[in-house]
Amino acid sequence: MTKTIRATCAHDCPDMCSLLVEVDGDRILKIQGDPEEPFTDGFACAKVNRDHEVVHSPMRVKTPLRRTGPKGSGRFEPITWDAALDEIETRWKAIIKQHGPEALLGYCYSSHQGQINRHLPNGFFHALGTSRLIAGTVCDSCVDVAWDLTLGGVGCADPDTIDESELIVIWGCDVKSVNVHLWQKIERRQRAGVKVVMIDPHRNRTAQGADWHLPINVGTDAALAIGIVHVLVRDGKTDEAYLAKHTLGWEQWKREVIAKFPPARVAEITGLPVADIERLAAMYGATKKSFLRIGWGMTRVLRGGQAMRAVAVLPAVTGAYGVRGGGAMSVTAGSMGFNFAPVRKPSGPAQARQVNHSRLGEALLTLKDPPIQALFIASNNPAVTNPDIQAVRKGLSREDLFTVVHDPVMTDTARYADIVLPATTYLETSDFFRGYGTYYMQFSPVAVAPQGEAWSNVRLAQELARRMGLTDEVFRLPPEKIFPKFFEGATGVVARIDPKRLLDHRAIKVAPEGVGQAFGTPSGKLEIYSEALARQGLPPMPVGEPDPRELEDAKRWPLRLLTTPGYFQAHTAYVGSEFLRKREGEPLCVLHPNDAAKRGLHAGDKVRLFNDRGEAGLVLKVSDEIREGVALVPGQRPEAETVHGGINNLCSDALTDIGAQATYQSTFLDVEKWSGPARVAAAE
Ligand SMILES: Nc1nc2c(c(=O)[nH]1)N[C@H]1C(S)=C(S)[C@@H](COP(=O)(O)OP(=O)(O)OC[C@H]3O[C@@H](n4cnc5c(=O)[nH]c(N)nc54)[C@H](O)[C@@H]3O)O[C@H]1N2
Ligand SMILES: Nc1nc2c(c(=O)[nH]1)N[C@H]1C(S)=C(S)[C@@H](COP(=O)(O)OP(=O)(O)OC[C@H]3O[C@@H](n4cnc5c(=O)[nH]c(N)nc54)[C@H](O)[C@@H]3O)O[C@H]1N2
Ligand code: SF4
Ligand SMILES: [Mo]
User: Ligand 1, closest atom to CA 175?
Assistant: First the structure.
């Protein structure tokens, strides 16, 4: 007997789709978008249409495993859950006794976006008083901190209001790949005659669908934003009344920064013609109903904070914040006042040592007093996706490190584990969701029973808590009983919602209030000038000069890395689907025809990407979808799929100016023909 279950997509994606999952016993037959939910609008993306293959993948880890070969070899033997948990408990207790709890590190991230499965494992480590992960620095911490410093901890424009926009500017986001339900809305506006402008170094799917694409140089967005403001000031197109009332530092910014960026200088930095900069400014200045979708890719550079802040100021310059159809969209979640503390910080010491997510390698190799002796990794594949994976792998190879990895499949990271534990996928769990690119929330029930011996993140965190003697209530309750706590002590619109309404598994909109002029900064205004940044010795107002370290590297290396999300892949989370692996194709490096010709390289060649830090072997695609001087590498792929290694061998663990985030794109390199042996298939 088949039945259809209303579930929520848990992938790390802004859309938070509502799904209809057709199930026969413990098998999923089909997944589709729920036609009754307005944002999802009846379709799931190309990836999630295949999620049944991930759930039922032959690559699933079926039982707990214990290492039998050297670290990294991937040799394991099956053991029982009891044996695995006994060993973990014994080792952890001994390490805590000898070195204290800070010798443990929980390293759990975002591939289950349910608020309980995502955060309870970290809540467990918080309660235990271990070293604490500053999570998200591999992804968007620069975006969050720079936004908060500029607008305060408030959400962004509601994507549903795009229906009223008169101009849509997509600034560095491959919306068709990473936010496809927003693209659907954008297309609808486009059909109504609204122009869509795309500012992106890559002529990707989204750029091809836009009316106008500006192929900006990587890492030069602050200069472009400042250049637009320069033209608006020059032409008297600024909303001075709005700026005087709602912003801080405008006059000083105009004098000290804006004046120094005339279009000719901006053209030189960004690689865009003066006429295009003028035209873009004129378009942007012509309407307050200008919807700006700010992507995050552009912040993954040394001065990512300047880029984010400069672009986020633009709507204030024309008075577009707070206007329906105008403003900027980045992360919606800021204005949802849920009380997540019961799961994220159930108990535990006020302070503990902190470890930056992007610097796992360094933490494993250099921390002392105490060194990290035990590592628990879940929902994360740092041996592929972190910057400086050579350091990560060296750290994971430490013989004296006790590593546990919890994952539905055998990953490059899990190969280094002492114990591997089989995890469920999201469709085998229940959880509470709230979007980060929408203003919807939903409670999702279990669609199918756990496959094989898999345990959910919640079940594992609760059992570990019991064994380690933690007594917080959250370690005993099922998700259904935990999520109502998020509404106790909530603020704003969330506080007025009865959580019981979510038990029918429908999405509910948490319509934002006062997004616009109600800025959450210390001054209550949009802070072009930030006192907090001045105190840290950083430029208090957004500046447009490139980072001197990048200029130095650019003199030594002819190419700059551009790294983008895969279309049929979400980082490495889809290794379990053969169909999607094939659709994505071989892991590629894309070079402009002139760059390929200069090196005597041809499409399909195996190529070696290299710099001072390391190398990666990929397959060459030759295309003018990027400019000369750029090496584009889409996605991050496991070693078994590449010619050799991975792109993050070449990326350093240097951090952004604001928010201590990874800077993959401040990587400079060269490319040559692959000469070494292609990597033999990964060890069994
Ligand atoms: N299909 C798919 N969807 C995903 C993911 C995935 O891997 N695959 N990942 C998920 C996750 S974890 C996240 S964080 C989000 C990713 O969300 P984002 O990081 O916001 O993704 P994009 O906005 O597409 O960022 C990459 C885009 O930025 C452009 N870009 C790079 N550098 C620059 C620059 O210097 N200036 C400008 N103007 N543009 C630049 C790239 O060319 C690309 O089009 O997507 C989520 N959704
Ligand atoms: N060069 C370069 N590197 C990047 C980026 C880039 O643009 N360029 N992007 C960065 C970004 S934005 C991000 S967010 C990171 C993402 O990096 P990761 O967080 O490492 O993302 P995934 O590769 O998706 O790994 C998630 C793992 O979680 C597992 N998993 C899935 N569901 C569950 C579950 O319910 N429980 C458990 N325990 N495990 C589960 C999956 O099988 C997978 O192995 O990568 C970053 N790395
Ligand atoms: S678009 Fe995003 S939220 Fe929607 S089904 Fe795909 S991955 Fe999930
Ligand atoms: Mo991310």
Answer: 24
